Structure to design on (102 residues):
Protein backbone atom coordinates (compact mmCIF):
# COMPACT_ATOMS: atom_id res chain seq x y z
CA UNK A 1 0.00 0.00 0.00
CA UNK A 2 1.41 3.40 -0.96
CA UNK A 3 1.68 5.52 2.21
CA UNK A 4 0.67 8.67 0.33
CA UNK A 5 -2.66 7.25 -0.72
CA UNK A 6 -5.73 7.89 1.40
CA UNK A 7 -6.93 4.36 2.12
CA UNK A 8 -10.53 5.42 2.84
CA UNK A 9 -11.22 5.20 -0.89
CA UNK A 10 -9.52 1.86 -1.29
CA UNK A 11 -12.22 -0.39 0.07
CA UNK A 12 -13.05 -3.66 -1.62
CA UNK A 13 -16.55 -4.18 -2.89
CA UNK A 14 -17.59 -6.79 -0.32
CA UNK A 15 -20.77 -7.80 -2.15
CA UNK A 16 -18.78 -8.20 -5.35
CA UNK A 17 -21.57 -6.64 -7.39
CA UNK A 18 -19.42 -4.20 -9.30
CA UNK A 19 -18.72 -4.85 -12.94
CA UNK A 20 -15.09 -5.73 -13.73
CA UNK A 21 -13.66 -3.26 -16.24
CA UNK A 22 -10.05 -3.63 -17.47
CA UNK A 23 -7.74 -0.66 -18.13
CA UNK A 24 -7.89 -1.42 -21.85
CA UNK A 25 -11.64 -0.67 -21.77
CA UNK A 26 -11.22 2.45 -19.61
CA UNK A 27 -8.75 3.87 -22.13
CA UNK A 28 -11.42 3.79 -24.85
CA UNK A 29 -13.41 6.44 -22.96
CA UNK A 30 -11.24 9.54 -23.13
CA UNK A 31 -13.35 12.26 -24.75
CA UNK A 32 -15.50 15.06 -23.34
CA UNK A 33 -18.57 13.18 -24.53
CA UNK A 34 -17.48 9.90 -22.95
CA UNK A 35 -15.02 10.17 -20.08
CA UNK A 36 -14.03 7.41 -17.66
CA UNK A 37 -11.21 7.38 -15.11
CA UNK A 38 -9.76 5.15 -12.40
CA UNK A 39 -9.36 6.23 -8.78
CA UNK A 40 -8.05 3.63 -6.31
CA UNK A 41 -8.85 0.71 -8.62
CA UNK A 42 -12.48 1.82 -9.08
CA UNK A 43 -13.77 2.95 -12.47
CA UNK A 44 -15.83 6.15 -12.73
CA UNK A 45 -17.85 7.54 -15.61
CA UNK A 46 -17.44 11.29 -15.06
CA UNK A 47 -18.88 12.41 -18.41
CA UNK A 48 -21.81 14.22 -16.76
CA UNK A 49 -19.58 15.73 -14.07
CA UNK A 50 -16.97 17.37 -16.34
CA UNK A 51 -18.73 20.74 -16.59
CA UNK A 52 -19.64 20.76 -12.88
CA UNK A 53 -16.15 20.06 -11.54
CA UNK A 54 -15.06 23.00 -9.31
CA UNK A 55 -11.46 22.37 -10.37
CA UNK A 56 -12.42 22.71 -14.03
CA UNK A 57 -13.12 20.37 -16.94
CA UNK A 58 -9.55 20.58 -18.27
CA UNK A 59 -8.04 19.09 -15.11
CA UNK A 60 -10.36 16.11 -15.34
CA UNK A 61 -9.70 15.66 -19.06
CA UNK A 62 -5.96 15.36 -18.40
CA UNK A 63 -6.83 12.04 -16.78
CA UNK A 64 -9.53 10.88 -19.19
CA UNK A 65 -9.27 7.14 -19.83
CA UNK A 66 -6.46 6.85 -17.27
CA UNK A 67 -5.62 6.33 -13.61
CA UNK A 68 -6.32 9.59 -11.72
CA UNK A 69 -5.61 8.33 -8.20
CA UNK A 70 -2.57 10.52 -7.51
CA UNK A 71 -4.15 13.61 -9.10
CA UNK A 72 -7.36 13.16 -7.09
CA UNK A 73 -5.54 12.63 -3.81
CA UNK A 74 -2.98 15.34 -4.57
CA UNK A 75 -5.70 17.99 -5.01
CA UNK A 76 -6.70 17.50 -1.35
CA UNK A 77 -10.36 16.93 -2.03
CA UNK A 78 -12.89 17.25 0.78
CA UNK A 79 -14.95 14.40 2.25
CA UNK A 80 -17.83 15.75 0.16
CA UNK A 81 -15.82 15.25 -3.03
CA UNK A 82 -15.07 11.68 -1.96
CA UNK A 83 -18.76 11.09 -1.28
CA UNK A 84 -19.59 12.42 -4.73
CA UNK A 85 -17.48 9.72 -6.34
CA UNK A 86 -20.12 7.08 -5.54
CA UNK A 87 -22.52 8.73 -7.94
CA UNK A 88 -20.20 8.04 -10.86
CA UNK A 89 -18.98 4.56 -9.94
CA UNK A 90 -19.49 2.03 -12.75
CA UNK A 91 -17.03 -0.78 -11.98
CA UNK A 92 -13.64 -1.84 -10.71
CA UNK A 93 -10.41 -3.11 -12.21
CA UNK A 94 -9.76 -6.85 -12.49
CA UNK A 95 -7.69 -8.30 -9.62
CA UNK A 96 -4.46 -8.49 -11.62
CA UNK A 97 -4.64 -4.76 -12.50
CA UNK A 98 -5.38 -3.46 -9.00
CA UNK A 99 -2.73 -1.45 -7.19
CA UNK A 100 -4.45 -0.72 -3.89
CA UNK A 101 -7.12 -3.33 -3.08
CA UNK A 102 -6.59 -7.06 -3.57
C1 LIG B 1 -14.52 12.24 -10.35
C2 LIG B 1 -13.49 12.73 -9.72
C3 LIG B 1 -13.55 14.06 -9.01
C4 LIG B 1 -14.52 14.60 -8.22
C5 LIG B 1 -15.87 13.99 -7.81
C6 LIG B 1 -14.06 15.92 -7.82
C7 LIG B 1 -14.76 16.81 -7.03
C8 LIG B 1 -14.32 18.05 -6.63
C9 LIG B 1 -15.01 18.95 -5.73
C10 LIG B 1 -16.37 18.67 -5.07
C11 LIG B 1 -14.25 20.03 -5.55
C12 LIG B 1 -14.55 21.27 -4.66
C13 LIG B 1 -13.69 21.25 -3.41
C14 LIG B 1 -13.94 20.03 -2.55
O1 LIG B 1 -15.08 19.85 -2.06
O2 LIG B 1 -13.02 19.24 -2.35
C15 LIG B 1 -13.07 19.85 -6.38
C16 LIG B 1 -12.03 20.77 -6.48
C17 LIG B 1 -10.87 20.54 -7.16
N1 LIG B 1 -10.53 19.43 -7.88
FE1 LIG B 1 -11.67 17.80 -8.16
N2 LIG B 1 -12.82 16.14 -8.37
C18 LIG B 1 -12.48 15.03 -9.10
C19 LIG B 1 -11.31 14.79 -9.77
C20 LIG B 1 -10.26 15.66 -9.84
C21 LIG B 1 -9.03 15.39 -10.54
C22 LIG B 1 -8.69 14.12 -11.32
C23 LIG B 1 -8.26 16.49 -10.38
C24 LIG B 1 -6.89 16.61 -10.97
C25 LIG B 1 -5.94 17.33 -10.51
C26 LIG B 1 -9.00 17.46 -9.57
C27 LIG B 1 -8.56 18.71 -9.16
C28 LIG B 1 -9.26 19.60 -8.39
C29 LIG B 1 -8.77 20.89 -7.97
C30 LIG B 1 -7.38 21.49 -8.30
C31 LIG B 1 -9.76 21.48 -7.20
C32 LIG B 1 -9.69 22.83 -6.48
C33 LIG B 1 -10.40 23.87 -7.27
C34 LIG B 1 -10.34 25.24 -6.59
O3 LIG B 1 -10.54 25.27 -5.35
O4 LIG B 1 -10.11 26.22 -7.27
N3 LIG B 1 -10.21 16.90 -9.27
N4 LIG B 1 -13.14 18.63 -7.01
Amino acid sequence: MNKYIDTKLCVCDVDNKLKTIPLEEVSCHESTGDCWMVICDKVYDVTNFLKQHPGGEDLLMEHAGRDATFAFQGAVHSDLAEQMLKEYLIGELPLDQRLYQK
Remarks:
- Residues 18-97 form a domain with the Flavocytochrome B2; Chain A, domain 1 fold (CATH 3.10.120.10).
